[in-house]
Amino acid sequence: MFNSAYFEHVFLAREMGVPLVEGSDLFVEDDRVWMRTTAGKAPVHAIYRRIDDAFLDPQVFNPESLLGVPGIFGAYAKGNVGLANAVGTGCSDDKAVYAYMPRIIRYYLSEDPILDNVDTHICREREGLAYTLANLENLVVKPVGESGGYGIVIGPRASREEIEDIRAKLLADPANFISQPMIDLSVCPTLIDGMIEPRHVDLRPFVVTGQSSWVLPGGLTRVALRRGSLIVNSSQGGGSKDTWVLEA
Amino acid sequence: MTIGTKFLLARYADCALWLGRYMERAESLARILDVNLHFSRDSRGSQNWRSIVQLNADEERFDKSYDVASYANVVHFYVLDRENPSSIISGIRAAKENARSLRPMISTEMWSHLNVFNNTMSTLTPDDLKPSELSRVCSVIKEECQTHTGITEGTFFRDQSWYFYLIGREIERADQTTRLLDIKYLLLLPPNQQAGSPVDVSQWNSLLRSVAGYHAYRREHPRGMQPKQVAAFLLFNMSFPRSIALCLSEIDGHLHRLRSGYGLRAGSGAMELLDETRAALAGHTPDSVIQYGLHEFSDYLQRQLIAITAAVRQEFCGAPSTPDAG
Fold first, then answer.
1. ipTM above 0.85, yes or no
2. Protein fold of A95-181
3. How many A×B Cβ pairs under 8 Å?
4. Mean pLDDT confidence for A106-134
5. Contact residues, chain A, for B317 at CB < 8 Å
6. What is residue A195's three-state secondary structure?
7. Residue A53: exposed, middle, or buried by beta-carbon count in 10 A (0-12, 13-18, 19+)?
């Protein structure tokens, strides 16, 4: 309820017609998950979870978690409850996986990627690290496991201290980072304090790929509301804009 | 039936109950302040602001923060004081927080209105509470509460949460009426005189106006103004929305609907307490309740309402069984 994405949780729950539950609304008994309702306990068979793996079950992961449900991992392991997304799928969100995608495509499909990645240097590899360290002022350095735009250092906009700080972090744990050239995001007229001002935006399309690929005729346009900022993430004060599809 | 309508999360039931309670409380408080400003004098003819503090059993909390029960202090305490959980501003905020939890259940109109109302409350300054302004502010608050009631009536999906909302509202209504009866009756009865001796009619008018009941009373009793009749009207009348008897009957109806319409097996303890309370009420006549002691009877009703609330929350919502006066 105090999560900055609460609005989205509510929206999704309403659209799907399912109860929006918090950890304390659920409990586990005999390796089955139950929901506390006015009619007593009601069985739960599938959960679209919106919290990180680490917070899912204090008995298995982060013991400090108050968001999670004690014992839920046991129920999951026995196949008594389905979790979407499955535990561990977060690794596909890892930015290093992104960096390997062209190689993964070539290896498994023997094809060249149709859409190019942004040039990405993998710092766990020696050349990637060397290039990154030599060009810190021109690169964007991102921690691989973070989300929400946290921990990113934008070289061209960083102070000398920030550069030195990230250099030390890179040397201490190179595998935790990737680097990319700074992409100058496009801008869009945005209403700021009653005035129209330019703000950077990005577009996230949604594609479902199986036998064929289907592209949602729409997408998520995110806007960085601070002047000059390239961080569009909602958890850092970014907003969203309408996405217009003129022809699908 | 899909999972979305078959089950109600216990937490949602609790939030719906409190949403109903907080909105009712805010409206009631605004009305009491307004009426006190215009009509109320105690038996010595002075405006008694302390009585409102007594009415809400807030003496201890009030005395901790304020030295005298002056107009300015009492009105600030009940309208703007965020430290006071029973102030209107705190009540609306609490209502909004409950509505936030209920967002998957309530209409967008309800949510928007509560947000705007909450923001309106935050813009109030002590200047808005001057005697010349208070009545206007109280009107705004009452009308916003009534707007909430109307939007809710017109848009709230009629599932279990609707009945929990109504139960919360009716409990608060009954509670407010018992408090008013308890404090005002003693205060208005001239000292050392028997009931039935000449009284200042305007005082009784004001008591009825505090519950929006003056004209309703006049329909039942076109002439005269007997303290005993006023008390009986507020206790027993089955047509007046804020009478104890009608509120209890409504709660009873809502509990029945929850149990028969949704197959809920919980709530037997609450039903039992409610039956007991209604029987006690039915066993009294206007004469016998005065004889028994209006204060004692109001006190009994308040204790029963607290116990009923605790039972509903515990049986349906799994709340801890310790009573919560709210």
1. no
2. Dna Ligase; domain 1 (3.30.1490)
3. 59
4. 92
5. 38
6. strand
7. buried
